Amino acid sequence: MVSCSSNNPKAVAGKFLKAVNKLDFKEAKKYCDKDTQDLLSLMESFSKGEEADKAKANAHDDDFIITKVEENGDKAKVYYKTKESEKETSIDLKKVDGKWLVSINKEQGGKEQGGGMHDHDEDETNIPEEDDTTPDDAPEAQDSIPAAQ
Description:
By secondary structure, the chain is an alpha+beta fold. The chain has helices spanning 9-21, 25-28, 34-46, 50-58, 106-111; strands at residues 64-72, 75-82, 89-96, 99-102, 117-119. Strands 1, 2, 3, 4 and 5 form a five-stranded antiparallel beta sheet that branches. The longest helix is centred in the N-terminal third of the chain and has 13 residues, at 9-21. The relative contact order is 0.15.
């Protein structure tokens, strides 16, 4: 008899995070959707060499702790913290054919290393607006290439 206890957002996210932490992309791909698998393939292509070997050797299963899970129908968000940072980060999951899978889109993946992972310590509404430093009486920019006569 097979138990379904490993098919919940917390368990799937934990297995995914452990695999990514160890740069075991083959294992991590078992726990995510197709788009996320493609993103992991890209990450895998950049994680070769001495630095990657060092990171793999230093990775531990307890390098992060899952702090909470928010489930909403066929979507879930799993929050976690790493040993190095007190920042709470989240990872999105969705239920596909009855199985929970990590789902990171390319925009999310570019925001942070490990992708689809969202930082929850910073308030994005407090970003200062850029000042327009062009004086009002400045001449309009001209083409630097003269027109043919």
